[in-house]
Each structure stands twice: as C-alpha cells, then as structure tokens.
Amino acid sequence: MATRVISQIRKLPLVNALRQASQPSATPGSYSSRWIMPSTSVGPTLKKTSGLTPAMGSLFRNSGLGSVTAHPRSGFSASIPSMSVSVRYNSTSGIYANVRKRFTKERRNRGEIKGVSDNVLSFGKYALQALEPAWITSKQITAGQLAIKRNMRGGKLFMRIFPHKPISLRPAETRMGRGKGNIAFWVAGVKTGRMIYEINGVPESVARKAITVAASKFPLRTRFVKC
Prior knowledge:
Layout: H1 2-10, H2 13-21, H3 39-49, H4 53-63, E1 67-71, E2 75-80, E3 83-88, E4 126-130, E5 134-137, H5 138-151, E6 156-159, E7 165-169, E8 182-190, E9 195-200, H6 204-215, E10 222-226
Antiparallel strand pairs: 1-2, 2-3, 4-9, 4-10, 5-8, 6-9, 7-8
Helix pairs in contact: 5-6
C-alpha cells in the first residue's frame, strides 16, 4: 500500500514542478537565494495539492524524497536530496496583489476650513454669523444657547449648526501605539459666513443683546446680522 502511494506521489504535479525548479534553466527570484518558480505554473499545482500537504510531508520523509513545508500565505518550500527549492506566491497578482501597496495617511482637518456654507438667513429675522472658520464644541454651542434663552424672553431660537464630528484624544504621557484613543468631545466645523443662531419674534434690541452675550462663548470672530 505504501509503495503504491509513494509511486502516486512521484507522479503528482508538485513533484514534477520541484524537479523542474532544480534545473539550471529556472530563473532566480528576488525573494530567496534558492531557485523560485514562476507563479503562473505554481498556482494550479498548489491548488491541486494543497489538501494533501499534511500527509505529503510525512510521506516525503518516510519515502526518502525529502520534506515539504507549506506556508498558506507565502507559498511552500521543499527539501529533497541534491535539490532544494523554495516557491513563493507572486505578490503582484491574486488576492494578495495590494499587500505591498502604500496608502496616504488621512490627515485630520487642522487647517483652515475653506468654502462657504449656509451664509443666508433662512428661519429667523436676526442671526449670529461667523466671520472665520473654526471648530465649535458641543459645550460651547450649549453655552451660547443658554445665554440667548436667559437674555431673551419670548421669541423663537433656531440652531443652524450641530456637533457631528467626533474628536478622540489619548491620555497624557502615554506610549505610542495600542490603538486609537477614545472620543473626548464632539465639534461642529463652521465655515466663514455660517449662520450659528437665528432668532425670530422679538425686537431688534432684545435680539442684539442676546446674540452679543452668546458671541462671547465662541473662540472665533462673529457679528450680528439682520434681514
């Protein structure tokens, strides 16, 4: 029985491929100093014999043919008397084509927020308008909202911004690595000319006073506008 199995192994495409790789006509590759076969001829061979790899390793040793070591992601290597072959997958084709591809790091938007957005009155008669781009935190938005409500009795307040951008921070004096930090706070990206608050249903003097107090809560230049 063992003799029959060994004779079948000798006829496998893998053995023939290893014999061909030991010939001087094989082209040396860049991954190893041993002979490396082209991936076009190795790929089908590996697929046909990948299921027999554990049994083939012991049969190769018992039969005196040598040993075979399989590497699921990089290829396989075989050691046969008077012949040593190392086969690797081609990294430029197949499912591992993009393993060595470099990607540009996504930078956090720390610079100037360019563009114009929502720079006209849409809901109210008076508004607080931003004159420069900035990040406004959720606490600052809430503080401005409470300031307007305290200084304005009656009327209606419209909030034109919402803190939808999460900002993560790492604890102080921590080593690099170990993943991304936890979310510390949320911010709203405000562009130049953006309406922050709009007010309707109150006199201009009341609206101007309330908006002036709310403007002191923000870290950017603003102005009072009316339609």
